[in-house]
Specification:
It contains 19 helices and 24 strands.
């Protein structure tokens, strides 16, 4: 070992269940007694049957950089996705560190387990020999789970041993989840087979649910149907009737797993595989009463403590959920989390985000379906956490502090610092469905292992971050849509809508304050000739050059617009004749410089006319623009390029709001407005 302190990674899923909790308790007991730091990588898979959610949860195992640890303990049978399980095993094997698997025998690694087959065979035999039952139904676990396979094999073989015919319809394949017990009973009751005398379950969760389902259907346990489980959990021991089950030394398994890592590091010889004894605890649910019962006073005290902690956790998570629901940016998430982290009673807390956590828009805004990509980002992380991790929130020694971003291989900066006190770290995933957002890290808190609501808290944080991501992305979408509505994409200037919106307030101000406005109308010379002779790409080049000239020249608050085709408008408030002439000359000079410095086979030029007036109420901005248009057209007719121009029709008379001498300029006010 290259350092003094020992660090052991623990890979486990669904730690709020008693099986996992008891194993972890044993691991922590040994680690605490021997000054070992544990880094738990915790998932909550197989919660709602959503494969996408499970993918997001199990991704936390990809964070574990096994090469940096002295050893690893894997409660691998709690991982329901076979691909995730095999991926973890492959990474552990590649890291070359001592590894202990609990309840799963993997070649070349240490194993702490029990003889599932013998334990279940003893249970089935008890029903056959002691009770004389021949109609035995069985509730199995996942078909790809080794423990489940061995327990089912024991059921089949024991029936065969006693000459009882196997009826496949008496077997229900579940997933070790509570609802499987309910579903199994409902399936058995619908079956055309004779009712079972006993229902043997592969774990206690399914057995307890099965007893409830039987009772709801008016079937007594054990008088009408006997029931058994496997694991001997607290709720089963204290259920009514108390559950017959298989007792497993789970805490002892955790202790031995931790000890096996230390022995391997110290070079102490040991067996590769240790099989622990089990014991069938026959209790009221099968009609026996051999299992010891908990003292009633002890039962009351424990239940009171459990209920009190649960109520406190409910209050915490409810308030956290309510606070995070109101968050519409990262700062608000940070502020609200700072209120609740001290209540979790942890020494350290870190909220770590993938660098790309808020991706959701395709980089090419012109790409098809980019709006849909906000909800289902195609460029988000599903496997792993990227390269760079950003820390949104860091808390240590009762203080919040700023932590710089770091490379994902570190997992957490300073994690292996010799100055750190030994303790227990918990790494939990943050994700939305299968999309990775980041992860949380907590040190020395009972909240992850003793609360049924730890996962809910992580989901609340994940959902809040996802909501903020959507808000960020939708803001970007809104900006893009606004741009599409108001900006001409080729010229990168206001289009007609943008021009109207940009000038509205200034124009009203000038009306109210009697300030003059200037409207300048520009029409490119010979654009049709450029398009016809050199193609529309060159026509686009000419339009872009014209637009660039306007942007360079208009530095005094003027508002530019591509009115359409080869026409442009400039608006300015509180303008003078002198400034208008300077602007006109500046545009012409810039175009001349462009022609002199470019190698284009044509000249970029424009005819320009402007009109300055103090606007009156009832006179639309585009009426003034029409006057400027006609002044521009008079100039254009003087040029040789006029042969490329369309002849203008006679213009109608403007409203009486304009001076009489401008009558001919009133042409086309209504037409122009309709075009807008």
């Amino acid at each position: 070992m290259s350092r003094k302190n020992i660090h052991i990674a623990v890979i486990v899923s669904t730690i709020d269940e008693e099986y996992q909790s008891d194993i972890l308790s044993g691991i922590r007991q040994y680690a605490f007694a021997n000054g070992i730091t544990l880094e738990h990588f915790v998932a909550f898979g197989n919660v709602g049957g959503d494969m996408r959610h499970d993918t997001g949860e199990y991704n936390i195992f990809n964070l574990a950089n096994f090469k940096r640890f002295d050893g690893v303990i894997l409660v691998i049978n709690t991982i329901q996705l076979a691909d995730s399980m095999e991926n973890v095993i492959a990474k552990v094997r590649k890291a070359g560190i001592p590894a202990v698997f609990i309840d799963k025998d993997v070649p070349d690694f240490y194993t702490i387990g029990i003889d599932n087959e013998a334990a279940m065979a003893n249970m089935v035999e008890h029903f056959i020999v002691h009770h004389g039952f021949t109609r035995l139904n069985f509730v199995s676990g996942p078909e790809d789970n080794v423990e489940s396979q061995l327990r089912l094999k024991a059921y089949r073989d024991t029936l065969a041993k006693h000459g009882i015919a196997l009826e496949e319809k008496r077997i229900y394949h579940g997933n070790f989840m509570s609802k499987d017990g309910t579903d199994a009973v409902n399936a058995f009751l619908r079956s055309e087979l004779a009712p079972p005398q006993a229902i043997i379950c592969s774990n206690d969760l399914m057995a307890i649910a099965a007893m409830n389902a039987l009772t709801q259907n008016g079937i007594r346990v054990p008088e009408d149907v006997a029931v058994s489980g496997f694991d001997y959990i607290y709720n089963g021991r204290n259920f009514a009737p108390s559950l017959t089950s298989v007792q497993r030394p789970l805490e002892r398994a955790g202790q031995l797993a931790c000890q096996a890592i230390v022995n391997a590091l110290r070079g102490i010889p040991q067996e590769r595989s240790i099989m622990l004894d089990t014991k069938c605890m026959f209790s009221h649910s099968c009609g026996c009463n051999e299992a010891p019962q908990m003292d009633i006073d002890e039962f009351k005290k424990r239940n009171f403590n459990v209920l009190e902690h649960y109520q406190n956790d409910i209050s915490l998570v409810r308030r956290l959920s309510s606070a995070l629901t109101e968050c519409d940016d990262l700062d608000k998430i940070t502020v609200n989390l700072q209120r609740f982290i001290p209540e979790m009673e942890c020494k350290e807390f870190y909220l770590c985000l993938c660098e790309s956590w808020k991706q959701g828009l395709m980089k090419d805004e012109m790409a098809e379906y980019y709006l849909i990509d906000v909800l289902s980002p195609s460029d988000s992380i599903v496997t792993g956490f990227g390269d760079v991790i950003q820390v949104l929130l860091a808390y240590k020694d009762e203080k919040f502090f700023k932590m710089e971003e770091f490379h994902v291989s570190e997992m957490l900066p300073g994690l292996f610092d010799e100055k750190n006190e030994p303790g227990n770290y918990y790494f939990a995933p943050l994700h939305f469905r299968e999309r990775c957002i980041g992860y949380c890290v907590m040190k020395d808190s009972a909240f992850p292992t003793h609360s049924k609501l730890f996962h809910n808290a992580m989901l609340n944080i994940s959902n809040a971050l996802e909501s903020v991501r959507k808000i960020i992305c939708l803001d970007e979408v809104t900006q893009k849509l606004n741009r599409l509505y108001t900006i001409d994409p080729l010229a990168n200037l206001n289009n007609r809508n943008g021009f109207r919106l940009s000038t509205q307030q200034l124009y009203s101000y000038c009306i109210n304050t009697k300030k003059p406005v200037m409207l300048m109308f520009l029409d490119m010379d010979g654009l049709k000739m450029i398009n016809d002779t050199y193609g529309h790409k060159h026509g686009d080049t000419a339009i872009i050059a014209m637009s660039d000239a306007l942007r360079v020249a208009c530095t005094g608050g003027e508002i530019c617009c591509r009115f359409g085709g080869d026409e442009f408008i400039i608006f300015a408030a509180d303008y003078t004749e002198e400034r208008a002439m300077i602007l006109k000359n500046s545009i012409e000079r810039i175009l001349q410089e462009t022609n002199e410095t470019s190698d284009l086979p044509y000249t970029i030029a424009a005819s320009i006319g402007y009109h300055i007036a103090v606007p009156e109420r009832g006179v639309d901005l585009f009426q003034l623009a029409t006057i400027a248009d006609n002044i521009m057209y008079a100039e254009k007719k003087k040029k040789k390029t006029s042969r490329y121009l369309k002849r203008r029709t006679e213009l109608p008379v403007l409203s009486s709001a304009l001076p009489k001498e401008q009558g001919t300029a009133e042409a086309g006010c209504e037409t122009a407005e309709k075009q807008i």
